[in-house]
Amino acid sequence: MQKPLFLAKVFFIASLLLTSSLSFADAENNQKADAIFKAIDNGIAINDHQQYLSYINELDSLIEPNDAWRQLRKDRARCWSFDIYKEGQVAVALAFAEKALTNPLLAQYPSHKLDLMLCKTWYVEQSGDVDTALKGYNKAINDAYILEDLRLVADARSMRGYLHSYQGNFTHALEDLITAQSMYQNLNLPAWEELNLYEIANAYRRLGDQTSAIRYFKQLHRSKIASQNFDVANTISVSIAIAEEELGQLDRAKARFNEAYLYWGEKGEHMAQATVAVNMAGTLIKLAEFKQAQRYIDSAVEYISPSDEGFYAFLHLFQAQIYLNENKLAAAHTSVEKARSAFMRVKNITGLAQLQQLESDIFVKQNDWQQAYQSLNEYVNLHNELDKKLLSTHTTEMRTRFNADQIEQENKHLIENQQLRDIELAMLEQNKLQQWIIILLGGLILLIISIFAYKQNQKNKLLSTLALTDDLTQLPNRRYIYDKAEQLTEQAKNTQTPFSVISFDADNFKAINDNFGHEVGDLALKLLAKTCRNVLSSEQEAARVGGEEFLIILPNTDKAQAYKLARTLVQQVSNTDFKSFPPGFTLTISAGVAGLKTDDNLASLLKQADHALYQAKANGRNQAQMS
C-alpha cells in the first residue's frame, strides 16, 4: 500500500472505505503511467513526437510526488523530449539533464541515473563536442554492462556506433550497431530495431558498399510506406538518393532529392527542406549544374547553422566547389575554412579528405604549386587513413560472415594455455612468488565459499517464506497466522491492550465449485484475499486457514472496531462487480468477531469467533456477528 494512504489510515481510521477507494484510484493512475512508460520504451518518440510530449505532460498528473521511481522515470523520458532542430533547445536540454542528475534519489536507482547521463552525452554530441561525447558513450556502455541493463547497453552502443560511422570509424561502427541490433531483437523492440538498421545501412553507405546500403534502405522504406509514416519514409528516400549518387546514378538521386525537397516544403518543415537542399546541391555539382546548385544552397543558408556541423560543413564544401567553378578563388578559400572547422569538430575524415582535394584544385588555379602540393599530400594521408579503416572494416565483415570468431576463440584458448604453462614454470623457479599465489588463491576460495553461504542463507529465507504462504492467494497460511496470533495474544495480555480476531468464510462455496467449476472457485478465493489487502492496514493481517476459511488478526483493536471492520469486509465483497466472472455468479461472506478478555487464551478466542461465525450463518449469511 502506498505510503500516503498508509498515513491517511493512521490519521483517519474512521474513514477506511474512503481510503480504500483512494488506493484504487492511485493504483489506476500508476497503471496508466506504466502504460505510457511502455509506449515510450517501445519507440513512440520515433514516430510521433507530439504524442510523446503529450504523454510526458500527462505523466505530471498521474504520478504522486513521493513516488520516487516513477518521478525519476519521468525525468528520463522528459530528458529525451527536446527538439534539437529548434534553436537553443540543445542548451536547454543540457541544462535540464545537469539539474536532473543532481537528484540525490538517483543513488538508489542506478539505471535511471545512467540513462540521464546517456541523454546528457547525446546532447553534448549534438552541441558539437564529439570527443567528450565519445568518452561519455564509452563510460555509459561499461556501466550498463556492470548493471546488466541490456536496454541501456543497446542504446549506448547504437549511439556510439552512429558517431563512429559519421567519423569514418566503420569497424567500430559496425561492431556497435550490429551488437545493438541483436539486443533490440532479443528485447522485442521493433521500432528501435528499424532505427538502428537505418544506421547500419548508413554505415555501409559511408563504407562504400552502396548496394548493401540501398537494399537495407529500401527494406525500411517499404515498411514506413506500409505504416503510412511518410516523414520517416521520406528521410530514408533521401538516404537512398545519397547512395545512388555514390554509385553514379545521378539522375535517380536528383529525382529523389527533388521529391523530398518538395515534400518538406509542402509541410513547412524548413530545416528538413534545407538539409535536402544541401544534398541536392552536391548532386547538381556532379552534373555540372552549378547555377541550380547555388539556388539550393541559397535556400538552405538561412536554416543551417554552425551547430549543425554535418550539413554546415558540406554546405560550405559545395559552396567552395561552386566558387571554384566561377573562379571566385578568395571566396572559395573562405568556404573551405568554414567547412574545415566543422569537419574537424566532428572528426569527419571523409569530408576532410574531399576538402583537401578541393583546396588543392583551388591552389592550382592560383598557380600556387607549393600550397597545392601540401593540400594534395594531406589528402593522400587522409585517404590512406581511410583505406586502413576500410581494410579493417572489410576484415570485420569477413569475420562476421564466415564465422571466424570461433577459430579466433580457439586460438585465444591455445595462447592462454601456453601462458599458463609459462606461469607454472616461472612459479617453480620463484618459490616465494608461488607461496603468495597460493595464499591469494586460498583467500579467493574463502571468498567464494562465503558468497555461496550467503546465497544459500538467502535461499533458505525464501523457502521459509514460501513455507508460511498460501500458494493460491499469496496470503499467510494457517501455520504462520496461528503462531503470530499466539504471540499477539500474549503481548496484548501483558500490555493490557485490546486484541481481536475475525473469522470468515465464503457462503455456499461448495455450490460455487459445483456450478462454476474449481477454477472459478479459485478466482473467488483470490478475490477475497485481494479484498482483505484493500481493507486492512499494515499491522492487520489476514490468512487462509482452510479451504474457504480465513482468519484476520487485529492488534490494538477492540471488539467494536473489529466488528465495524468485519461489516466493511462483508459489504466490500457483496458490492464487488462480478462482470469478469461467469453469468449468474455471486459471492458473499459471513464473519464472526471476537475480542480478547482477561481470562482468554488464543484457543478460546478463536472458538468465540467461530461460534459468532456459525451464528452469522444461521441468521442468513452475508453478515457479521460478534461473539
From TrEMBL:
Keyword Phosphoprotein: no
Matching CDD domains: GGDEF
Pfam families: GGDEF, TPR_6
Cofactor: Mg(2+)
GO biological process: cell adhesion involved in single-species biofilm formation; negative regulation of bacterial-type flagellum-dependent cell motility
Gene3D superfamilies: 3.30.70.270, Tetratricopeptide repeat domain
Segments crossing the lipid bilayer: 436-454
Top-level taxon of origin: Bacteria
Domain annotation GGDEF: ranges: 497-627
Cited InterPro entries: Diguanylate_Cyclase, GGDEF_dom, Nucleotide_cyclase, Rev_trsase/Diguanyl_cyclase, TPR-like_helical_dom_sf, TPR_rpt
Keyword Membrane among UniProt keywords: yes
Keyword annotations from UniProtKB, A to Z: Membrane, Signal, Transmembrane, Transmembrane helix
Reaction(s) the record says it catalyses: 2 GTP = 3',3'-c-di-GMP + 2 diphosphate
Molecular-function annotations in GO: diguanylate cyclase activity
Enzyme Commission code(s) on record: 2.7.7.65
N-terminal signal peptide: 1-25
Coiled coil: none
GO annotations of cellular component type: plasma membrane
Name of the featured protein: diguanylate cyclase
Species this protein is from: Shewanella fidelis
Taxonomic lineage from the root: Bacteria, Pseudomonadati, Pseudomonadota, Gammaproteobacteria, Alteromonadales
